[in-house]
């Protein structure tokens, strides 16, 4: 027993030290795929001494405000054009530290089987934030539905529409409310995470779907002051693993695409 006691004490001390060394961070996510993917990341990060707590936000505005205020340490819900817009408008000191997944946005309808079936003067809802609303207008432009002013970049608005042959009426709604708008419009552009929450299939159900390639890859963001901290690398490396990639491909079957 005389030599076993020191061994036992050493093991206890080692376990205590490991627990003390573990760092805990809070990550803001939107409900649905972003939250589900981070749940798959959690055990991988935990093995590297990083404990993750997820906080779900129901909109696209609060997660950056919470991050900038230090209420959370990271968020995972947005793409680079959206982050750039938020930083320009609100002065946030937030940086992207790693790419995550892409959610090709879709246009859905309960009334029409094809976009061409929408009548003249039909109502189409689009997200009311500049980035997601803009990407829908770019999608409609690319499909030949409308024409936009030259040089509008990634954030065109309805004011940038130069030709609208079908005289479609664009109704701007909060992205989280887009599925509810389906009953009241001819078609609604819905982000993938909100579409899946509403029971829609983002691969089979859209009457128009965005090209999965492009600038709208989602990302992990942290405060600029934190971007070089060791836990950031652990978080990104834990996300960028074969296990997480396989989870995304298996779980979402093409509705969400890995971008690393």
From TrEMBL:
It is a lipid-anchor. CDD domains: PBP2_lipoprotein_IlpA_like. The keyword Lipoprotein applies. Pfam families: Lipoprotein_9. This is D-methionine transport system substrate-binding protein. Its main location: membrane. It is found in: Membrane. InterPro entries: Lipoprotein_NlpA. Belongs to the NlpA lipoprotein family. It comes from Bradyrhizobium sacchari. It comes from the Bacteria. Residues 1-21 form the signal peptide. GO terms for cellular component: membrane. Keywords: Lipoprotein, Membrane, Palmitate, Signal. The keyword Signal applies.
